[in-house]
Write a sequence for this structure.
């Protein structure tokens, strides 16, 4: 279940639109149409195996029964189901998920929902809701029982990649090469792993200091640019000019950061990823990023500056809406940020020209660099 602090802020971000996966929203009124059609998806999927459907179904159910205790431990049960109902539910839902995944790759699986782009998009979004998941090992077991019979030597993670790309919050391509099924809880956790840093042992840091907005940093001489070749999708880095220059336009520092895509559905994806981070023991890199971008954005002017710099791609239309969305993401959320020390540790140094005519203090603080010129007497303090 999503933490109540996040759920109370945006209940609709955690409710499926058209399809229920797992037990938590199975009885919601708005998912009943597809609930009644899941049998058709399961039969169509099994039809491609050229094996007796009853035998295939029996094998799938047996797989689920063997893991029943593990499955039950995954949920806070709000309704009562016996083992038989749970097994049938999970097999049906796993088949629905696999059928949808395969529709991205094979025309034969597009027929049941072809021509309804809105439905397909809604299903895609529903598959990454925290409260709309089934254990991924069940999906993998059903995949092995059914799909591997007609598409052998195929990776389930590889098949899911196009769906993850459709849900990607950033312009940089996501990479699933290092994701292991054995370390995967559910589909949402796969998307989460796509943004995970290469290492997790980043020291914590005190965030009590004030961080300035994008407009303030721009006025102080900081440039913003997309991080074009990041080793980590969410990576940020500060680029300093090698030699301080008398001409201000040639000596500006640059903050390179991931180009974030903001659309009508970005908020619920962020909220579910953050809810996942806050509800279990895992890296808090999405919550950390939301904290960092919130520090940069105070209002629509900050959004406009980031849009002009192409580190924010606005598909919502209104800069004010984007600012409100970003500012609301971290409301009532407390956590210890997990950002690389190189972006957190405040450092300062002075660059002096001969005769001490110019002095530029340089400060790096949570990925934001303040470039101050004594020449124009513009000073920002952190």
């Amino acid at each position: 279940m999503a933490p109540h602090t996040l759920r109370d802020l945006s209940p609709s971000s955690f409710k499926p639109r058209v399809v229920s996966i797992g037990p938590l929203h199975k009885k919601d009124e708005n998912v009943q149409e597809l609930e009644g059609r899941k049998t058709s998806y399961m039969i169509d999927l099994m039809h491609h195996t050229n094996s007796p459907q009853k035998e295939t179904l029996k094998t799938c159910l047996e797989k689920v029964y063997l893991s029943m205790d593990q499955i039950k431990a995954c949920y806070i049960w709000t309704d009562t189901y016996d083992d038989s109902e749970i097994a049938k539910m999970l097999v049906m839902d796993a088949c629905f998920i696999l059928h949808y995944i395969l529709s991205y790759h094979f025309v034969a699986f597009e027929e049941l929902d072809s021509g309804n782009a809105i439905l397909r998009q809604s299903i895609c979004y529903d598959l990454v809701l925290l409260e709309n998941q089934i254990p991924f090992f069940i999906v993998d077991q059903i995949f092995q029982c059914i799909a591997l019979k007609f598409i052998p030597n195929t990776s389930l993670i590889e098949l899911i990649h196009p769906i993850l790309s459709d849900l990607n919050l950033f312009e940089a391509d996501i990479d699933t090469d290092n994701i292991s099924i054995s370390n995967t809880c559910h589909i949402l956790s796969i998307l989460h792993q796509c943004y995970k840093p290469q290492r997790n042992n980043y020291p914590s840091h005190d965030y009590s200091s004030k961080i300035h907005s994008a407009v303030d940093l721009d006025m102080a001489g900081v440039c913003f640019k997309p991080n074009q070749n990041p080793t980590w999708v969410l990576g940020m880095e500060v680029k300093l000019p090698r030699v301080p220059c008398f001409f201000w336009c040639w000596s500006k520092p640059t903050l390179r950061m991931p180009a974030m895509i903001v659309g009508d559905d970005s908020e619920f994806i962020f909220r579910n990823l953050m809810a996942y981070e806050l509800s279990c023991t895992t890296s808090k890199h999405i919550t950390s990023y939301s904290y960092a971008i919130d520090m940069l954005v105070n209002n629509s002017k900050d959004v406009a500056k980031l849009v002009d710099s192409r580190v924010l791609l606005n598909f919502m239309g209104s800069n004010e809406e984007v600012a409100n969305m970003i500012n609301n993401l971290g409301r009532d959320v407390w956590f210890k940020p997990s950002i690389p020390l190189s972006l957190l540790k405040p450092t300062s140094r002075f660059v002096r020209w001969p005769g001490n005519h110019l002095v530029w203090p340089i400060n790096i603080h949570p990925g934001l660099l303040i470039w101050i010129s004594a020449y124009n007497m513009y000073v920002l303090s952190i």
